[in-house]
Amino acid sequence: MKYSIVVPVYNECMNIKPTTEAILKAFKNMGNHLEILYVDDNSPDGTASEVEQIASKFPQVKLVQHGKKEGMGAAYRAGYEAALGQFILGIDADLSQSPSDLVKMIVKLDNGFDMVIGSRYLPQAEMVGKSKLRDIGSRSMNMITRHVLGIPMTDATHTFRAFKREVFTSVADRINEKGHPSFQIQFTYWANRQGFRISEIPIRFEERSEGRGISKLSIKKELMPFAKLVCKLTAQRVSLLKKSDIGNSLE
Predict the structure, then answer these.
(1) Regarding beta strands 34-40 and 61-65, do their DSSP bridges make them parallel or antiparallel, or are they unpaired?
(2) The whole model's pTM is what?
(3) CB contact set of 125 (below 8 Å; sequence gap of 6+)
(4) CATH number, domain at 222?
(5) pLDDT in tens, 6-62
(6) Residue closest to 141 by CA, chosen among 223, 233, 76
(7) Residue 195 is part of which domain span?
(8) 124-138 pLDDT, tens per residue?
């Protein structure tokens, strides 16, 4: 298995079929080396049954029963840990991101990068339909991750990314966040600290359209965990810098 695409799902029954078809179309030349992992958080709408039905038609599709609703970060972690591929990729279930952009990320991984993030905020990126509140909240969080945490990315909060398996396994024991975007920030922070090569590509992001369910994300719910994480990582960063300064002075 070369590519594992992780898709967290909670009450996404209506999206399983179109999302599967879109992914397989984008990866049509790689279908024999691909698995699509739908990570279900015990959805009450029959999402798991729909995944199993689609899996009977498409052998690339697999159901990962996370079994409890702990947050999008926890669901992604369950998918990353279950993945068999050399490269692990993440995408949302509502096709707000394009699977064809995942293929572009793979090209960058093949060219030497260890992680590639699909950025909504690079100059060439395009964003459609996102509310002003969520846009301001997301941009503010990413500004803080750049200037306070030293993550040199425009969209470190984004789940839409691809990376080599060893990136996650190298930092997994340092990640304890379960929500979004705290999980992805913590992941990106430690991958950067470990010296992995991280890049971004501009993408087109389109807020989920009518008939594709309801977004599960909430800026209000994200703020407090985000603030606590920033404080924690800042303290750790300062501590590491002090130790480095002491070591340099002793030399």
Answers:
(1) parallel
(2) 0.90
(3) 119, 202, 203, 204, 205
(4) 3.90.550.10
(5) 999 999 999 999 999 999 999 998 878 999 999 999 999 999 999 999 999 999 999
(6) 223
(7) 3-250
(8) 999 998 888 889 999
